[in-house]
Amino acid sequence: MKIILTTLALAGWAAAKPQMPPPLPDPLSTETVSPVALPTEPAVPLPVPEPPAPTASALPGGPICECGYTYCASVLMAMKRPWTPKLLTQAYCSTPNAACPEGLPHTNVTSALFICLCDGVDQEVGTHLHLLCGCDTCLNVNPDFRGRCETPCYHD
Question: What is the pLDDT of residues 29-61, one digit of tens each?
Fold first, then answer.
């Protein structure tokens, strides 16, 4: 039994004996790279663009909206700095292709659905409303309180 254990131990040591690593293959090619001359003059910095100008209708202390949000007119009129029916009518009628014959909204402006559009990507608040729909009834309900029409709007 002792001989078997000794033989196994010697075989294990022989297998664990460090071996020479295989030789590395020769490089495929020996290309030389020419050094590139670096410019000695400092680079001219690019001009920093100016921030976008505020929208023309932006008045200090005037009504605002959060960019990208949809709003029922009733919510806009109930804000801390409220939107007036006159301002909502202007937003309604200035929306391209809005049904606004002779400057009068085709539907009730106080039940319209608007979206707040902004000029800058990083802009958080703005003053530009865009008509989405002249709703029969505009809803602003749980769970998300996002403005939407009770029934879908469509154009003739």
Answer: 555 666 766 666 666 665 654 443 444 445 568
Q: Kind and range of the H or E element at 10?
A: helix 2-16
In the chain, beta strands by DSSP E: 65-66, 70-72, 112-117, 125-126, 128-134, 138-139, 148-149
Residue whose structure tokens are 């049904």: 99
Cβ–Cβ < 8 Å for 97, 113 = no
Report the distance separating Cα 152 and Cα 47, nearest Å.
48
Q: Are strands 125-126 and 138-139 parallel, antiparallel or unpaired?
A: unpaired
Q: Is 50 helix (H, G, I), strand (E, B) or coil?
A: coil
pTM greater than 0.85 (yes/no)? no
Query: Exposed (0-12), middle (13-18) or buried (19+): which is 148, by Cβ within 10 Å?
Result: middle
Q: Which of 134, 121, 117, 145 minimizes the C-alpha distance to 58?
A: 117
**Cβ density class 53-73: b for 16+ within 10 Å, e for less:** eeeeeeeeeebbbebeebbbb
110 touches 137 (CB < 8 A): no
Q: What is the largest CA-CA distance in the chain?
A: 112
